[in-house]
Specification:
The chain is of the alpha/beta class. It is built from four helices and five strands, in the order βββαβαβαα. The protein has a single domain (9-145), classed as 2-Layer Sandwich (Nucleotidyltransferase, domain 5). It has helices at 43-57, 76-92, 104-113, 119-145, and strands spanning 9-15, 19-25, 32-39, 59-66, 96-100. The protein has a five-stranded mixed beta sheet.
Length: 146
């Protein structure tokens, strides 16, 4: 694992076919906060929007949720996410970390069900919450590793 880079924030992503849930760390890399979910349009537009977010928040590393089956085996989505992560690496020249995201969407849904939020609003923020959980677990693991 690469050492922590204190020069910027981390960007967490929950990558899906239609949306990319997003979260950024605080400057110290302790807490993750959600940022508005990216509605995917096409590769060029998606990458341009991610460039804007990377610049706006001063992102120095990206954590991408790595979708595996509960058994730990790859799924159809796994290959697509690996390909997308490689595109991010080439486009932005930043460290990209794939992070096991098993159960994050389920956990996000569980946490959101415990709120007074409407079903429609929960559907809008579940990807963002999953990105927060991915990034938070990555940062907590990194802290334990040092």
């Amino acid at each position: 694992m690469e050492s922590s880079n204190n020069a910027g924030r981390l960007l967490g992503m929950d990558v899906g076919a239609r949306r990319i849930g997003l979260a950024v760390s605080d400057l110290l890399g302790i807490t993750a906060q959600g940022v508005p979910t990216l509605q995917r349009r096409n590769k060029r537009t998606d990458l341009a929007e991610l460039q804007r977010i990377i610049s706006e928040y001063g992102v120095s590393e990206i954590v991408v949720g790595y979708p595996l089956r509960l058994s730990g085996k790859a799924s159809a989505q796994t290959g697509k996410v690996v390909e997308f992560a490689e595109e991010l690496r080439k486009k932005f020249n930043l460290p990209i970390h794939l992070w096991d995201e098993r159960l994050t969407s389920a956990e996000a849904n569980r946490l959101l069900r415990e709120t007074d939020m409407s079903i429609r609003r929960r559907a809008e923020v579940v990807d963002q919450m999953a990105a927060v959980l991915i990034l938070q677990s990555f940062m907590e693991n990194r802290k334990r590793s040092f």
